[in-house]
Every structure is written in structure tokens, then in C-alpha cells.
């Protein structure tokens, strides 16, 4: 059923304005972004289909532009651009929070931030969060990219970037495109190598976070640092 054929108080836009965004379900909020559906599929159905396909709001936010392009009805640029813009706004909102307060005051926010940046990538990416003495975010940089199974990480480059940011500590992060969040022995060895290299310039490694599209693992919480 088209949105215009719904009772006025059930139409997402009017419902939002009258009762607030919290009164809307996930599909209704997505439908507001999409605005129109397909000839054989209403916009609410299309929105629910997106949520089902990508595993809810969290999965949708971690979806890449290429993934969205494969969805029927999102092949054109307009709707896809709006969804990508929402993703970028979510990233920036989390980044602002991490810059304004101690990162580990909200470990969940750190994991979500890293998932939004890294989880949807088809290739392995190694990134570093550079933190000040109050554990607030100074910057995040993607330093190395690899294949689906291996990334070459050079400790010297990580140390140079840490010195450039004059940071006090770092959080290491990388994604596993394979979908398994468990750290490999190579991940553990790399963590120890970088920890030793950064200690030489008095920079602490606070954590190494591994992310997939559906999960994030903290090596510090697992006692692997």
C-alpha cells in the first residue's frame, strides 16, 4: 500500500511530526528516506526488505555503497546517496563523541565507530585510532590495505604516524572480511610487535579491535594484550 493511502496518523512523516521519531519503527524510518517504493512493492515493504536483507539497522549502516547498488530499486544514485549520507552522519556523530570524551568511557561506541568504518570493506584494512593523554580521539587513519586474508603492516609506519599526531596511546583495529571475529595467531603476534615498537616512543597500545559486519571483538577484553 502506498504511504498516501494509509490513514493520516499512520503515515510515517505525520506520525514522526506528531509523536516524535521514537514512535516509528525501523522500517518506517527507512521508508522516510526512500520516499517511494517500486511498482509492485510499497515503500514500507521495500524498507523492511532492506532491513531483512542486511540484518536490521546495524547491518544496514555497515553496508557498502556497492552492496546497496545490488538492491532492486537502489540502482539509481538518488536513494542510494541518501542512505550513504546517513551512514556518514552516523560515523561523524560517533567521531565527535569520541573526540569530546574519554574513549573508554564508552567502549561500545568505539566498536560501533570502527564497525561503521571498516566492517563493510571487501578487503582487509588495518587502522589506528590515535588518542591524547585523556584517551580522547585525535584522529583515525587507515594505514594499510591487503587482500581478503592478509595485510602487510609495517611497525615503523605506525610509529611515525603516532609521533606525527603526538599521541599518548593508540587503539589498533582491523576487519575480517571472512566474517569470523576471532583473532588469529598472526593477529596476536602483530599486536605484540606493535606494542613493543610503540613502547620505544612511550606510546601505549590500549586495545586491538577486530570487526566484522555483525560483531566486534576487543583483544584487551580477551586478555590478549
TrEMBL record:
Residue span(s) of domain MPN: 103-225
Pfam families membership: RadC, UPF0758_N
Keywords: Hydrolase, Metal-binding, Metalloprotease, Protease, Zinc
InterPro entries linked to this entry: MPN, RadC_JAB, RuvA_2-like, UPF0758, UPF0758_CS, UPF0758_N
SUPFAM superfamilies, per database record: RuvA domain 2-like
Similarity annotation: Belongs to the UPF0758 family.
PANTHER family for this protein: DNA REPAIR PROTEIN RADC (PTHR30471), UPF0758 PROTEIN YEES-RELATED (PTHR30471:SF3)
Protein name in the entry: DNA repair protein RadC
Amino acid at each position: 500500500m502506498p504511504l498516501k493511502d494509509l490513514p493520516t496518523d499512520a503515515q510515517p512523516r505525520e506520525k514522526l511530526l506528531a509523536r516524535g521519531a521514537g514512535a516509528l519503527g525501523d522500517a518506517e524510518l527507512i521508508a522516510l528516506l526512500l520516499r517511494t517504493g517500486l511498482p509492485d512493492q510499497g515503500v514500507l515493504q521495500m524498507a523492511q526488505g532492506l532491513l531483512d536483507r542486511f540484518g536490521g539497522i546495524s547491518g544496514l549502516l555497515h553496508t557498502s555503497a556497492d552492496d546497496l547498488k545490488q538492491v532492486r530499486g537502489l540502482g539509481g544514485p538518488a536513494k542510494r546517496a541518501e542512505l550513504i549520507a546517513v551512514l556518514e552522519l552516523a560515523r561523524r556523530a560517533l567521531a565527535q563523541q569520541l573526540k569530546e570524551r574519554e574513549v573508554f568511557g564508552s567502549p561500545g561506541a568505539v566498536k560501533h565507530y570502527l564497525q561503521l568504518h571498516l566492517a563493510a570493506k571487501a578487503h582487509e584494512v588495518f587502522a589506528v585510532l590515535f588518542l591524547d593523554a585523556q584517551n580522547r580521539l585525535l584522529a583515525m587513519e587507515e594505514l594499510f590495505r591487503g587482500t581478503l586474508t592478509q595485510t602487510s603492516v609495517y611497525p615503523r609506519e605506525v610509529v611515525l604516524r603516532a609521533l606525527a599526531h603526538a599521541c599518548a596511546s593508540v587503539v589498533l583495529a582491523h576487519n575480517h572480511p571472512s566474517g569470523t571475529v576471532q583473532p588469529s595467531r598472526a593477529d596476536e603476534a602483530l599486536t605484540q610487535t606493535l606494542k613493543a615498537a610503540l613502547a620505544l616512543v612511550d606510546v601505549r597500545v590500549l586495545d586491538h579491535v577486530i570487526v566484522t559486519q555483525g560483531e566486534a571483538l576487543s583483544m584487551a577484553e580477551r586478555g590478549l594484550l
